[in-house]
Amino acid sequence: MDLGLRHLRIVVTVAESGSISRAATTLKIAQSGLTAQLRRIEQGFGGPLFRRRPDGVVPTELGMHVLAHSRELLDQFGDLLTTARTLARQTQPASAVALGGVDSPWVPLIAAIIRERLPHREQLTYLEASSAGVLEHLRTGKIALAVVTEFPDVAPPPVRGLAVRELGVEPILVGLSAEHPLAGRDLLSLEELAGDAWVAPGDRADGLGLSLRFACERAGFAPRFRYFGADQTAAAAIVSAGDAVGLFTACAESHPGITLKRLVGGQLWRRTRLVWTIDSPLAGFAETLDTGALGGPDTELLARYPGTA
Description:
alpha/beta, Arc Repressor Mutant, subunit A, D-Maltodextrin-Binding Protein, domain 2, 3 domains, eight-stranded mixed beta sheet, two-stranded antiparallel ribbon, 11 helices, 21% strand
């Protein structure tokens, strides 16, 4: 696996908590999920980072080395974010109102409504790879409103102290080619896809790839990713050719040559939320937004594939 800053934060949190269970509580993730993540992180570093004891965990010699450098890297990255955001705010038009979000159909929809209601204000939109990154922009004032997502078994974005509106929960669907042996079925289970190759969720999928891994592991297999870095359009083309299966939201555009299937028991889903600070210039907009009338990017598809989470 490719290790990144979020994996270093997990290692530091486990070390500071002194136990897997306490770290899981801090990270707001299931203990079994954190254990699985830590196992993969240790495999990435080439050996165990912690020694398990009845009263918790302690770092190994390798773990002490990784922890020392992890804290240094996280501090340096924090400094980079602070200075970069200061520079970004200096270059942003003073009259602009900014929306931020992950790659989601909700973002352009809400951006369009902001432009309609505030025609005399320049409207900016920032797309980030993760909800955590979006919320950092919100807390530092770069954006006035955030659209964030949450997936099963992945630590939810930290929204404590912020105002929140639910936009809805939608199922994640599996895309198959029209010639796939299971294409005629209405419902599928992940177990039935254990032998298929997969298109890995794209860089802006905000934790969906990790959620898929956990769901597949519970189903008794590890997903065999063959394609990486594809957006939804490219993923649809790969799936249509019959080379792999992939994940799509119920709000996804119609793609010729693929069929979308719901998973039994709502094994995968996405929750979307609108988040803002109390003093946000868009607080009034967010509070009065009629989410029922908003409906979503594709209410017909949502009706066909109701959320089960």
